Amino acid sequence: MADDEPGDRRKHFEELTRRHPADPDAARAFLAARIEMIRGDARMTPEEKERAIAELRERLSRPERPDGG
Amino acid sequence: MPTEALADVNPSSVAQGQRGIAIERFSEITARTPRSSDAEAAFMASKLHLLRTHPVEPKDLGRRVELSARFRTRMMAAEALPPVAPTRPVPGGVGYGAFYKDAFKTAFQTGTSISWKIVCSTPPGGNVSDWLYLTATNRSSLGVEAFVSYHGQNETTFNVFDWARPGDEWQTHILFADLGEYLSTEASHGEDFQILQVMNTTLESSPGAWSNQVHLWNFPQSRWDLVYQFDYAADLAKQTTGWVGSWGPIVETFQDAYSGTSPMGALDASVATRDAGGTWSNWDPLLDTQSDIRTDNKGFVLSFLDPNFTWVVTS
Q: For chain A: N or C, fewer Cβ within 10 A?
């Protein structure tokens, strides 16, 4: 499990990630959760929320739309 | 209730001794208006949620559990909820944490970085049965989140989610069992906490070329280890526009209410800023002049806060 140089563990971490990949649902849940974070952000205007949610929905729409929206 | 149904009810009629007529009219209107069992259930459920998540001192947690059970019994007796009302996971809440103020979020030119010690007890304890994140951004809109993820009690991981890689954001997923040299214990406010020290940086490496980098502090070697890097084309406008990048260290929730969780939080969260000439500032603690605390009433109770760079919550 070679590293590029001392202090550079990128290859090591890539290999560990390949060994135990993240649940595919996790990434979609991550993005869907951000939509709810936006909805609950008291500092944002409705227009800002709408714009930010649209951007996240675009990301979510790539594989599928697990947020039901 | 339809508003037109109330149009002919003059408030003065109540004051003129015609209270009985007004009551009759309201009774008629109520009888004509179909009741929404969903709305009633939601109303009652929201009250139960408030009760469950109202911040209380640890010594009063037992009392809250007792009151919640009594309230639920009352709701079921009133048929406000079906006998078994599953608590639907509510993703995307903020159990506790700091959000950058608008001016501070965009106050960098060619780079921004956050370093913090994630207080990450394992297992999370309490009623954690879904995902729960301990995460932060470094203010940049195309930066990464380098974060601890709990999934129930048995899976705790370190992850990198890269906002500069649409459709391929999730890049790193490391079991805590493989993070031995990066986990340590640190004392704060008289208590010992397990910590993972993370540095999350976004910088312009050359004009129009940006890089996201994640380092972890290697305790045995006493050095920062680079564990992730991604280079991409962008500009400052893209790095400072939008909502992504607005949160500092937060506990991000996926359940309606938490109770009994072990300590989670942030120690010594510090931010560095790179100016137009490429010079980094010193590390400065994240202050309350630069950030606001957000808490969504999910049941987390503050153990201590040094505004806003050090804090720990339990539930």
A: N
> Which candidate from B159, B243, B254 shows the least CB-CB separation from A22?
B159
ipTM computed for the complex: 0.84
Q: Coil, helix or strand for B16?
A: coil
Residue in this structure with the two tokens 């952000």, named with its chain if needed: A41
Domain range list for chain B: 4-314
CA atoms within 13 A on the CB side of B300: 30
What is the rounded distance in angstroms from the CA atom of residue B79 to the CA atom of residue B87? 17
User: What are the pLDDT digits (tens) for B182-199?
Assistant: 999 999 999 999 999 999
> 10 Å Cβ neighbour count for A9?
23
Using a CB-CB cut-off of 8 Å, the residues of chain A touching B167 are 59, 62-63
Mean pLDDT over residues B290-306, rounded? 97
Place of tokens 């957000």: B294
CB pairs under 8 A between A and B: 106
The residues of A whose Cβ lies within 8 A of any Cβ of B are 6-10, 12-14, 16-17, 20-23, 26-27, 29-44, 48, 51-52, 55, 59, 62-63
The structure tokens listed for B73 are 């019994």
Please give the model's pTM, rounded to 2 decimal places: 0.76
- Cβ <8 Å between A36 and B99: no
Cβ–Cβ gap A62/B166 under 8 Å = yes
Q: pLDDT tens for residues A7-42?
A: 999 999 999 999 999 888 888 888 888 999 999 999
